[in-house]
């Protein structure tokens, strides 16, 4: 059996019955560290050249990241060259500190410091693996032997730093595969390294605890972080950093819970690029904090521009459902969702706390246009269609008109096998409900308001123009009397609504009317620069639609008759 769960064991767990992290609350952003240019770069099919690294560097600085891991200068010439380019060109802002990674090997540490010569400040990040499988199967060393590798690396770092006294150095150590390492041993190794570095609260060192491979759920990671903070020495002289990977899909959650458990600093990448399933996504975690009213300290207000740079540099497209910034994450297709969003947006005041159904934050904060919030497909209802018409074209359709238009839009979207855009929806509305030209057209009108309104109409028919006059208490009654005089019959107006489209001298009027004639209801609409003309054209549209519908019913009934029945008729 190829798919066999029995060959796997649960990840390491620890006993922490008095854990305190579940009762903690995040109140401020951590220290952010981007590892896009190192960890993210190592995970690419085609690692970035210097030009692409420079473009991504510029983005990271623009967003506001203050600590950026720029490479592994001892591992490859492009990484070395890029570090030198940043230093020699003076491209590192005064408030930004670069970080470089190096294994606990003497020759690599020496070359790393050579690459950093002349930098005002830098973080040297040294690491070695500490987990049982790495100790036993990779290095063939026992606990003491692997701790010796860590301590020797720490000593080499101190030795090389003294050769460059003009640089403000910060030392960082990672017990690689921390989450798969026995907790007591991880603390033992880290304490040994810290004893060699002798940090102080004024000049702390960084201990970085990586989930090199995510082997447990985020709550277990939080337990490990809290227990580590209790067991490590010199906590006041340490910056506690975490570096979650995303093998189980929980990197962001692990990062959040680690902050509750006492972490000060988070390493990750923009949009989560990294080995296997990736690193912690800095954008997602930062936006999670933002959505809770916490300033993330990063400028993520233009995600489209950010994604364009990241996609160009990594050649990895952003999923349309990517949290917070994906193309479709603020787009509702469901009819009930669309209706709720539309209603909430009308009631949401600019200065009030945000509370719009289905939208956890204001899309405008991320430079998203509200016109993209609701899109219409075959799953959408009248609410989404109405939202699009109102926000794109200023057309606020009455409920009864929405009900009639909605199935037409649904059929059109089904025929298109997908979305139907706003212009197509408007075209359907116009072609179906603005019917003021056939079989009767309005060629002219004059209104005299002296006592009862007197309405003179010039109507075009298939038999030619007809001049008719009607009077009444209001324009609608006057039109009804004129229509009865010209064509006979009567109709009742069940509802009439109008509104302006736009403002100022360029504004138009939209009119909507629902009538009942011979027991049948018919809706009509019109758009005109003149309010009176809009009302008359909407009435004419409703009557024309009623006439066409009656003719259609007659044709259908006739077609259903037998030849003998048609002859008798």
Structure overview:
By secondary structure, the chain is of the alpha/beta class. Helices cover 41% and strands 19% of the residues. It folds into 3 domains: 30-314, TIM Barrel, CATH 3.20.20; 335-433, no CATH class; 441-556, Alpha-isopropylmalate synthase LeuA, regulatory domain (Double Stranded RNA Binding Domain), CATH 3.30.160.270. It has helices spanning 36-42, 50-63, 77-88, 106-115, 132-139, 143-161, 183-197, 218-231, 251-260, 282-290, 303-314, 335-347, 382-393, 399-415, 422-433, 475-487, 531-560, 563-568, and strands at 31-34, 67-71, 97-103, 121-129, 168-176, 205-211, 238-244, 265-268, 441-449, 453-461, 464-472, 492-501, 508-517, 520-528. Strands 1-2-3-4-5-6-7-8 form an 8-stranded parallel barrel, surrounded by 7 helices. Strands 9-10-11 form a 3-stranded antiparallel sheet. Strands 12-13-14 form a 3-stranded antiparallel sheet. It is elongated and about 105 Å long. The N and C termini lie far apart (77 Å). The mean pLDDT is 92.
Question: What top-tier CATH class of the largest domain fits best?
Answer: Alpha Beta
Number of domains: 3
* Unreliable segments of 5+ consecutive residues: none
Share of helix, binned = 40-55%
Average predicted confidence as pLDDT: 92
Strand order of the largest sheet: 1-2-3-4-5-6-7-8
Distance between the termini: 77 Å
Overall shape: it is elongated
What proportion strand? 15-25%
Query: What is Rg?
Result: 35 Å
